[in-house]
């Protein structure tokens, strides 16, 4: 598809993440002839818009400790508006200002991200595991690569975000970190960089100097004892990318100058998982069917 290794970059939605700085670094890489696909979230913008519209927000915590957003119909509308109507146009405009050709996409475009809506989600409430229904979130099952491949071949930077499309043709919310991992696997990317509002995986969440240079995520089950808060899904996504054949996954600081270049040079935390599954480029679980053990 491309003559140089593809890098998939996830721009975190934490308000402290410097999206403009990420765009500037992506522009430098593209100027050097390196293909890049950019995935973004938008938790800060979602929270801001939800507050403005008076839509209550709720977080679900699964039995394995992974936190996800409860997505009722009103929240799904907020998520779509915030990502496709707020965050994405700003990123595309900034890349354009820097001379980079880019195209903003959601998982709905070209049926790129296919998911199964979760009929029920397990959540721990007051120490008890309950089933939460009427949740419009989905479990990624298939990535159709024709559209991003065509854009990459033509020299564009695809800028991708949720939602995905479910088995009935309806939009569903999916986690953007896992979207980045799914696209990295399906497109045969060699490198996945997950940029967040922290310097990497921290041994002590209250001490930013405690960043781990490497972190091995258990091959199955909960993502480990350092998986606090929003880091849990990043570690789940990192594991899924590695299992799918992506050679290098790093979680790094999206607030720093030149964040992508610094991560590729070794900053942040290198994620590993063992034993490796032996999958390679396009043969991992993201191309057809994802494990449903995480992100519920």
Walk me through what this model shows.
Helix content is 29%, strand content 25%. It is α/β, with parallel strands linked by helices and 296 residues long. An eight-stranded mixed sheet has the order 5-10-2-1-13-15-16-14, sandwiched between helices. Strands 3-4 form a two-stranded antiparallel sheet. Strands 6-9 form a two-stranded antiparallel sheet. Helix 1 links the parallel strand 1 and strand 2. It starts with 6 loop residues before the first strand and ends in a 22-residue tail after the last strand. 48% of the residues are buried. Residues 276-296 have low confidence and may be disordered.
Protein traits:
single chain, 296 residues, alpha/beta, 29% helix, two-stranded antiparallel sheet, 8-stranded mixed beta sheet, Carbamate kinase
Helix content: 25-40%
Helical run tally? 7
Q: What is the CATH first-level class name?
A: Alpha Beta
| Major pleated sheet | 8 strands, mixed
How many individual domains?
1
Low-confidence stretches: 276-296
Shape: globular
- Classified in CATH, the superfamily is Acetylglutamate kinase-like
**Strand neighbour order, sheet with most strands:** 5-10-2-1-13-15-16-14
Structural class of the secondary structure composition? alpha/beta
CATH topology: Carbamate kinase
Regarding quaternary structure, what we see is single chain
Order of helices and strands: EHEHEEHEEEEEHEEEHEEHEHE
Strand content: 25-35%
Shape-level CATH architecture: 3-Layer(aba) Sandwich
């Amino acid at each position: 598809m491309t003559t140089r290794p593809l890098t998939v970059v996830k721009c975190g939605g934490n308000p402290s993440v410097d999206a403009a700085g990420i765009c500037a670094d992506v522009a430098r890489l593209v100027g050097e002839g390196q293909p890049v696909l950019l995935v973004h979230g938008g938790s800060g913008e979602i929270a801001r818009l939800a507050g403005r519209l008076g839509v209550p927000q709720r977080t679900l915590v699964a039995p394995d400790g992974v936190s996800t957003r409860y997505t009722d119909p009103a929240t799904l509308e907020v998520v779509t508006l915030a990502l496709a109507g707020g965050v994405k146009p700003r990123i595309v405009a900034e890349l354009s200002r820097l001379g980079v050709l880019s195209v903003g996409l959601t998982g709905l475009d070209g049926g790129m991200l296919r998911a199964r809506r979760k009929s029920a989600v397990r959540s721990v409430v007051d120490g008890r595991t309950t089933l939460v229904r009427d949740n419009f979130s989905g479990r990624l099952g298939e990535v159709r690569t024709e559209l991003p491949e065509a854009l990459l071949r033509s020299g564009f930077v695809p800028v991708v975000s949720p939602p995905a499309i479910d088995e009935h043709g309806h939009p569903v919310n999916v986690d953007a970190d896992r979207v980045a991992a799914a696209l990295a696997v399906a497109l045969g990317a060699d490198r996945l960089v997950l940029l967040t509002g922290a310097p990497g995986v921290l041994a002590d969440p209250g001490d930013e100097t405690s960043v781990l240079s490497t972190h091995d995520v258990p091959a199955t089950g909960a993502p480990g004892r350092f998986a606090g808060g929003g880091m849990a899904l990043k570690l789940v996504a990192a594991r899924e990318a590695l299992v799918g054949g992506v050679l290098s996954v790093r979680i790094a600081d999206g607030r720093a100058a030149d964040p992508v270049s610094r991560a590729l040079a070794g900053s942040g935390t290198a994620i590993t998982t063992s034993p490796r599954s032996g999958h390679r480029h396009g043969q991992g679980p993201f191309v057809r069917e994802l494990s449903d053990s995480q992100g519920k």
